[in-house]
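--- STAGE predict ---
source: upstream dedup step, 1 unique chain passed
mode: sequence only
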Amino acid sequence: MRFLFTLSRRMKRVVGVVTDSLSVFTAFWAAYYTRMGEVSSYIADFEYWLLLSLLTLATLALFVRSGLYRAVLRYMSTSSLMAICVSSVLSAFLMVLISHYFQIFLPRSVPIIYATYLVIFSGGARLIMKQAINKALSEECAPVIIYGAGGAGRQLVQLMRQSKEHKVVAFIDDDKALKKSTIHGVTVYRRHKIKYLVEKRKVKKVLLAIPSATRGQRREIIELLADYQVEVLTVPNLDDIINGSFQLDQLKEVAIEDLLGRDPVEPNQELLDKNIRDKIVMVTGAGGSIGSELCRQIVSNKPKALVLFELSEFGLYQVDREINQLVSESGIEMKVLPILGSVQNSERLKSVMSSFKVQTVYHAAAYKHVPLVEYNVIEGVENNIFGTFRTAQAAVASGVESFVLISTDKAVRPTNIMGTTKRIAELGLQALAEQENAKENGTRFCMVRFGNVLGSSGSVIPVFKKQIEVGGPVTVTHPDIIRYFMTIPEAAQLVIQAGAMGKGGDVFVLDMGEPVCIADLAKNLIHLSGLEIKDKDNEQGDIEIVYTGLRPGEKLFEELLIGDNVLETSHERIMAANEIHLPYKNYCQLLEQLTLACSNLAHDDIRRILLNAPAGFEPTDQIEDLVWTRSCC
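--- STAGE serialize ---
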């Protein structure tokens, strides 16, 4: 078999011609023997050798004409078998014509028998060779299981047969009607057979070919597969496979949102349009994870203009380039205005909002990384508290219609500086909202509070994946730590819809679903990469999980509500919280105290002011500011 693989294409065709010549020879004499019971008298007659010679040449010409020798044997399909059948029937017809022309005795049943034998010998030889070649090649291929025997799975198994690296050993499907059936030569099993198949066939990869499944269904399947230390990969939608745009190297890791099993809710288009369509919209922190996704969602709702406000030059360059390309591809007529600036610069904010007559502001600019803000307290206070308040004041001065603050679940009973600054930022907007609500056309302020988003700059998921790629260890702060998670697109859509419902001073809370144990998430990611966890019970495992302890300011679990007084809204995943707030005068006094403390670099005073503020701050650590601790030593 190895020798045949090394032959040139021309030599392989020569082998095919020789094989078919032997098939015609064998079928010819077998047909006479079957009909007459003996062939010795015919073999001795020159006329029959003449008939056989002419028949062989004619049959080979028919096979050439049918394209049989152009077909690659290992990919031989039913069309090749059909070509053999048609050519064999025509060969039998030529057998009759030649024998009639040379007046050679030919029993009537012999051509029928001959055609049957020729199909068996010529077609059978090819099928046997195809099986032998595929078996030889598959010995070097890694066995895989395809989960899903529907359209995508069937297309995928055909595509996999062109692969030199993988072979499909089984389908898994939950449809009872498909149990034990065979599709493209591959048997379909129910899910309870996965363990048996993984162990017996030494399977290391499972391909998910269920593009139509909901996230809830996908999560159930993925959690099932996570127990077997197999690498789980997914295929794109069925259209990509059918139209030929899908390649095997496009198989991708399981999307982390599938592990959450949270199906997105269809957005309310009326709410999406309310503050955006045909309006001039500004996003602060436009280059960040949430800010850039807000920009993408805003573009799809066709504003008149979009102002990208960003401190980072590189971040602004990236988001400006992406949004302009998105606008160009979608054919939307709108202006994209990239503006460099800091949210701490009041005059810059006012001039931008006034110059472009901004009507809606989404304030996503903030320092959000808990330990980094712990290490840089004053910058966190100035950016998150003063930056938010100055942006809001600029919005009031410029006649902005609607202002939406992107807040966080860490603002609820905060144990860190970052969460506390975000809660005080909320208090500032509530204080301003009290004044603006008294005006006829005042700015509408609202806040939207939610937890972690998948794929953000501070998300733990990319960190885990990189650690797994390099062989570990995977670092988790605490075995019991839990977090809420949401995809960035869903979070951005809900922020826009919540902002449209704001009446002034509202605190909206997004339904984040069930909290996720970070340690379990790390274990699932290891298992779904086809690796084993290394611990004291399995010292031969691949990846170790190391618990590093809670970082400064972190707590085991996050909350979304300060109290139990929560109201439903018109959207099933958006709630409204009714929480305490400060009068404007008192809030300004709080800012004056913080301004003095920050200007004097008095971290003790900053800590005291934050503790006395009605933010519920309960620190778990001492002051961790790196510069302050260094100067105190």
